[in-house]
Amino acid sequence: MDHANIGIPPQTQLFQSCCHEAERAAIVAAALDQLREALPESFHGHLIALAGGIRDSSRRLRDLANHSPSHIERVPLVLSYLDIILPCLCRTLNDIMGYYEDRTLTREIRWRKMYNQMTEEAGGVPLPQRFLLYNNFLGMLGYLLNRSPSFDPNALETLRGHLVGLREKRGIPPSPQQVDSVSPAEIVSLAIVPDPNAHWAEQIFSLPLASRTVLKHVKPSMACGPFFRRDQLAIPLEPKVLFRRPFDNEKTSVVAYLNPIDQAPYLLIRSLQGEVAWFSSYGVHELCIGREGSALQLKRWSRSEQCSKLWAAFYFITWEEMVLFYCTFVALKARNRLTVQIAPTEFQLQREKRLFQAQIVDDGYKHSLVVYEDQQTHGIRLHAAVWDGELKQCPVWTAFVTAQSQSSTWISRRSKHRVWLRNIQLYVFCRNYRQEVQRQNKSKAFEIYFVTEQGASKFKEAFSAMELSGGSSGTPETGTGPSGG
Predict the structure, then answer these.
(1) Distance (Å, rounded) from C-alpha 136 to C-alpha 88?
(2) Which domain holds residue 456?
(3) Residue spans of alpha helices (H) in 293-426
(4) First to last CA, the chain
(5) How many domains does the chain have?
(6) What pTM does this model have?
């Protein structure tokens, strides 16, 4: 895919690139059908699987092209990932045609040579399985483009890693995105102005994370029930899905949805026990959240036993996703009219150290701004919450600054009360907050207005101290790239 032609709009680049490879894939699949017709039936199984996988690639590429005009703002991000897969897919399709068109060999030898040599060059991955990798990656890009609740940043990152490995085995030169993945600036530009038709919770997990801070001591997630069949639960036919998070290769998953009857948020857990799926659902207002190591625990009240019982323990791969799930849950609960009360401990994520706190004026609202350091990973984040009133301490936004905190270029003092932050991505946990109001400058830097001059000074000093010490009080295990949990 040639991006050197800067005169072509990104959506046109994506459309042309996808259509070109889709057409190539369709031609290759048709050629394999012809080859199959000339071979004994014993060869048909693998040929049918391979041709089917190639046709699936063609379909998914056309879907990306066809949906791109409706999601123009996300096209540059998807193009970054297509830069990883398309050269590899193109090489594979061309190699298949090279074997197919080798008239010096019989059709059977062509097929045997194609299958065996291409399997060997991929490190033993059977040729049809290679297209399963391609199609899973293209499918995840479709979810990313369309803001689907099924988008899984962990799966995208894992698939990206497999593709990078395959490119290396094939001797394909690295793409700009292969090592560093997507730049934080690309993700920030998408996050500034959210989709006006979407619930704020739909936005939280709809983008790759700009950083990934790996959690240690991750165990299988656990759902404790009570469990029911899907048809035994009083779940509306068409609830508004806010997000979906899978764990342990889909063995456990949780969906957050709005009930159209009471407009309250609920969680639905799906747990695979053997080959049978069991379900459990509670309103967010009926649950309490807390952290235990690398897991977030959700507890419910047992009426029969008159005590609190564990409902689920979700273990996250990255600290960032754990924080986002926690903040999203607390904000949904705090802003839910069915919530009777929230325990003070729920407003504080355990195992975080408060490095700084001050009052700010943020989009016209009074907020408290806290700098937290995670004690397990030493990740750094900013956390803005409601200053006072009935929603006091409710999360408004958070931003991860682990990598930025080690550099002096991302933060600048603009006046006695104003500080600018560059390339910082906010995750917003309410409908009315407009972060673009704080970015009304040419560089789109995020402006923080401190109520006191001392607050601005102390904030800048906190990060200057981190820079001098080479980061936070420990060494964060972090890197740039898409994420997951």
Answers:
(1) 14
(2) 184-195+203-210+350-485
(3) 319-334
(4) 31
(5) 2
(6) 0.86
